[in-house]
Amino acid sequence: MQLLIVSWLLLLTGGILAPALGRRPLAATLVGSGSAALGSLAGLAIAVGALANGQTTGLALATTIPGLTLSLRLDPLAAFFLLPVHLLGLLGAIYGGGYLRGREGRLPGLHWLFYNLLVASMSVVITAANALLFLFAWEGMSLASFFLVITEHQEPANARAGLIYLLATHLGAALLLGGFLTIGAFAGGFDFSAFAALSHLPGPTASLLFILLLLGFGSKAGLFPFHVWLPEAHPAAPSHVSALMSGAMVKTALYGLVRFLLFLPSAPGWWGGTLMALGLAGALFGIAMSAFQSDVKRGLAYSTVENVGLILLALGLWLFCRGRYPQLAALALIGALTHILNHALFKGLLFLGAGSLLHGAGSRNLNRLGGLMRRMPATGLCLVIGALAVTALPPANGLLGEWFIYRGFLEAGVRLKGLAAFFPLVIVGLLALVGGLALLVFSRLIGIALGGEPRGSRADLAHESGALMLVPMFVLAGLCLAGGLAPSLLLGPVLRVAKAIEPPAAPLLAQAGLLPLWLGGLAQGLALLLVLTALLGRWRKPRAVTPAVPTWGCGYLFPTRRMAYSAEGFSELAGVSFFCDCLRPRIEGGRSMRLFPGREVFRHQAPDLVLEAGFLPLFAWVAARCTRLRRLQSGLVHIYVFYIFSVIVALLGWVAIRL
Amino acid sequence: MLIRLFWHLALLLGLSPLLLGVIAKTKAGFAGRKGPPLLQPYYDLARLFRKDMVISRTTTWLFRAGPVVGITAPLVACLFVPFGAIGAPLGFDGDLIFVIYLLGLSRFCTAVAALDTGSAFEGMGAAREVTFACLVEPTVFFVLIVLVRLTGSFSLGGLFGPALATGWHTAAPSLMLAIFCMLVVTLVENCRIPFDDPTTHLELTMIHEVMVLDHSGPDFGMILYGAAMKLLLLGAMTVGLALPVSLGSAPLDAAVFALAMLILAVLIGVVESVIARLPLLKVPQLLIGTSLLSFFALILLLR
After folding, report:
1. How many CB atoms lie within 10 A of CB A203?
2. Dihedrals φ, ψ of A365, to 5°?
3. Fewest Cβ atoms nearer than 10 Å: which of A180, A250, B93, B101?
4. In this predicted model, what pLDDT tens digit does every residue of A604-651 receive, in sequence order?
5. How far, in Å, CA of A35 to CA of A85, rounded?
């Protein structure tokens, strides 16, 4: 525990020193990313150690602020969630050192200050054992990540993204504040140790709390329909920050949800049902929207919405089955936890890979990329492994988590009687649809960005990224493969946490312990067989390859690069054939009907339906109603001081009356 | 275990190309032609494996990986599927998910290999393949879910085992619908009319065949062989649904299974001969309809 605090201090010191070295960018980068990497490495070691010995350590320091004690606790659940934070913190720091080097003219010091603050505050959020401390760290995390999102604020799109993110995260934080105050009032304190009293909450209060926590944490986690900030913020942020936000920060919200759900009394059925419904909606909506994005990072952000949806779906099943069907609860919980870990690995990898494409080929637009496997072979290999993992294909790690989720719902479908079994079984079918769409999305990403000929002039001159950027990607790609080939690596920590949360399910956990042998052995066998088949092909016909011909154009002799399939074209059939109108992308122009076609403008957009048709009109409506309040906004400081004074007097008066 | 593996591999490697030959012969018979010899697919494979390859200069290792995965993944997947009464050599609790994702792996690699050539035709084929697969996968899952619910087992070996035979007494309507859905899935996944026509002269209208335009020689041989195995795999599931009986001795069971598969191949040939190919945009509608049918089979079972 003390070591963890030392690692935070290291992060803070480095973060403060980096901007102080302002005029020397190289030194600032060295100090900033070095301290971030060292601090994260220490944190990672501590988390792994804590998980390995499975013990809970704690620390509590009193403060003079009422309700706030600096109490920290590192139990298996916290240690588990520290893994992605510090792993991606470490790799992102190394990657960022290379990524930011090309951007001269900007001082990297401030970026590293916020980066280190983000890593440290996520770590504090996860280990905090006091609700107020949790909230302070939560706010620190939100603000640090906000400043990281607007790193390149000169572009208006990025500034808008930052604004949407700030708004979403603060509305969520307000709901959390409300929830925590309710909890504090009932439990008589803000320390987690006092929260045992919450298990006696009356039903309606508990349900209110559940909703507040779900929406509060959900807005950060990318819960549908509060996911709108993700596809805006992730493309705007530098890629290592996107990786950290998508792989780790989103998970802190899931951590918060699980942590506080464990304090609440046993859940009525509709809690789990709500979670499952929203999770499923998010999974379907996220992957469908992802299919229409031509911006690589925007597509990945929507894929995060999908994966968070899957995790919430599993958590919903866990919540629904807790206390009723212990085996199902254990399966669902293991599925959710495995997918959390897997998602951190492969989504981190994919965002870093997308950053490498942007760095090397100068664009995030799929229609400007192409032919990059030839020009950036290492990045390409990493992206292929990431794509296999995210689509849950063997032999990568993604299948493991999804296997548990599928298995949990199938089991539920067999256990439940009559028509009650209908819902879990239908969810299995819809999961298959999500899986099919994910395959479309990522075969499109790999095929269009890496295969074929370059579609843009800069992709022609693309260059491979430097070692600083490649090494973190290789580490993550290696972990993705290792997780698939040796699932016990992943399941070890997951089972420890699951045992701590769901002790009654011990027999099933032991049974699940048998499973990785199968999936892992099969993945190994498959990989071996693939290599053998490939070698067999080589050995039989070493002389046969004649590579000096162009692609067969079905008799057409002058194909150009512009004729290759575009990103939009690839997903058009899916859009036409099974999405409703409102989800389809908006297409303007591009249809020439004249005999002598002239210049045509073609525009293809896939805006977020929830943002465009839901939140923006809602906020515009609220803003229109609030114009009268502008009179209060005089811009004179002494008037504002007067407001504060009068509020305090009113509050004192209220307290005096109640006494 | 080893004996089972032997029977499985023998049936898989030996029988699968013959199915293609039977289909072609049936179609030729309907058209009043003599048709290629039944063993033509074997000759084709042997010829392809002896040939040289032409590889586009645009491509990378992704292009070469397509056929390798395209033959390996169905081969491994077949080891989990019982061939009639001959039990699967491999199996574990929940292997149905693994098998479906294995087929997904082969689809992913074939589509990426197609896009790697940079040809508009192959990109088009890849887009169609992955789009239609989105609609086929839920159908396969619903059919398997019906079986899971009926037999209480989570492995393919158990799903098509003796428990299914008793299931026929109680849930025949659901199983009839399931057989129909599996038949449609077999047709779609193996690019048969009415969904796809590999023998058309126009690349624009193809799905699977256009994806592999640039593959040649041994690579194309691997793709063909893999496709034949996939036909056998899905056909075995259909046959397993319809004939969950065992005669007690392995050679006899193998013979029954082979016969049933040949009948299925003739049936596919008949379907291909009497039905016209659907317009491309009608295909998703039919697939959605099939998904709904499989869904209905589930409701009938839960009733």
Report:
1. 9
2. -85, 120
3. B93
4. 888 888 888 888 899 899 988 888 888 888 888 999 999 999 999 999
5. 15
Tokens at residue B291, please?
């998904």
What confidence tens digit (pLDDT) does each residue in A238-286 have? 999 999 999 999 999 999 999 999 998 888 889 999 999 999 999 999 9
How many residue pairs from chains A and B have C-beta atoms closer than 8 A? 267
A378 and chain B in contact, CB less than 8 A: no
Give the residue from chain A lying closest to B72, CA to CA: A530
Which residues of chain A have a CB within 8 Å of the CB of B303?
A: 419
Contact list in A for residue B135 (CB cut-off 8 A) is: 433, 436, 578
SS in 3 state form for B253-271? HHHHHHHHHHHHHHHHHHH
Q: Any CB–CB contact under 8 A between A430 and chain B? A: yes
| pTM for the full predicted model | 0.94
| Tokens found for residue A256 | 């918060």
Q: Is the Cβ pair A447, B126 closer than 8 Å?
A: yes
Domains in chain A: boundaries: 1-195+225-253, 626-658
Domain limits, chain B: 2-302
Least CB-CB distance to A565: which of B123, B136, B303? Answer: B123
ipTM over 0.85: yes
Among A436, A545, A570, select the one facing B134 at the smallest CB separation: A436
